[in-house]
What we know:
Helices cover about 55% and strands about 5% of the residues. The protein is mainly α. The radius of gyration is 15 Å and the shape is globular. It starts with 8 loop residues before the first strand and ends with a helix.
Amino acid sequence: xxxxxxxxxxxxxxxxxxxxxxxxxxxxxxxxxxxxxxxxxxxxxxxxxxxxxxxxxxxxxxxxxxxxxxxxxxxxxxxxxxxxxxxxxxxxxxxxxxxxxxxxxxxxxxx
Length: 111
């Protein structure tokens, strides 16, 4: 039994310039995610951060705070309600904002 029944899996297509250690660990995590998606016959969609930013804010160079504000506005919510990243400061929801932004971009793209 699966608790959730997703239609697809969406991942960020990431470019790493210098930090090899981060690149390896993120690549390993992406591999696990993609294998899990394949095991459930779920399609995987990949988007670059600049594509998501352009779609949501009108600029591919929007900073994290700008993305957070746009996500908050699109979802008509507060930072505290959207901060499910485990950080003590519930006003900061950068990790969850990234996840929600890519999900919103995909939802708008398929509509």
